[in-house]
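tool_call: predict_structure(chain=1)
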Amino acid sequence: MLKKETIEAFAKFAGVPASDLEAKIKSEREEDITLQKVNVFSDDELNQRIQNEKTTSYNEGKTAGVEMEVKNKKKELGYEFEGKDFDSLFEFHSNKVKESFDKPDKKVIELTTDIEKMKKAHKVELETITGERDTLKGTVNSLKTTNSLMNIIPANTVIPKEDVITLFNSKHQVAVEEGKTVVKFNGETMKDEKTASPLELKTVFMNWAAENKYVSGTPGRGGGNEGGSGGYSAKSASSFQEQWQKQNPEKSLNDPKYQEDYAAWRKENKNPEQ
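tool_result:
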């Protein structure tokens, strides 16, 4: 008589109820049992099968996880494409980024336009300020030069001091270079012939005034007075102007030469006719 546990084990293996198997064992007749189909594995075969099933299960789970993650990302980013893997997601996203750079949105274009307008406005404003600064600088330098000349010029001028200064400035340029005042004639700094040092403003002015007889009691150019009237026979200012224009048809009364000739004529005609 088999143990109950053994009978139950065989019944389970055969795929039949334990009670049926036990009855057939006790039967005096010849009995038959229909066995279920089973596969018999060695230990190595069974271990390999278990490992394969684990791998298959892992790969299926991994694929399902990737598809779920990609699906979530598509929904989050508002993407629509056919693929279900990360490669499809990355490719679609890369194309989106390229498209955004190739076609900047309206706001970017608007901001770029505003920046360019601001740059142009700033450039114009800077040029205006620079021009005003240079103008102001020129005015200040001119006032300084005039003030310096007013302190230098002697009292015994043959024409008003302001006119002498105007004539001087029409021929010379006074500038400040490296902190020092220099006088230029035809764009070149006037220098001492021996030392090559820039001549002082007072020296240049006094030599020029004496040479042109703008100060009474100073010798004239070449030692003569060109007939005592600077070459003009006019007795009144209007006559002088008329005579000067005839002799200098290519020049205007605003020309510095007119001022010089008029000053020379006045030196010889201190009391012209009215």
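agent: The two ends are 171 Å apart (CA to CA). Proceeding to next step.
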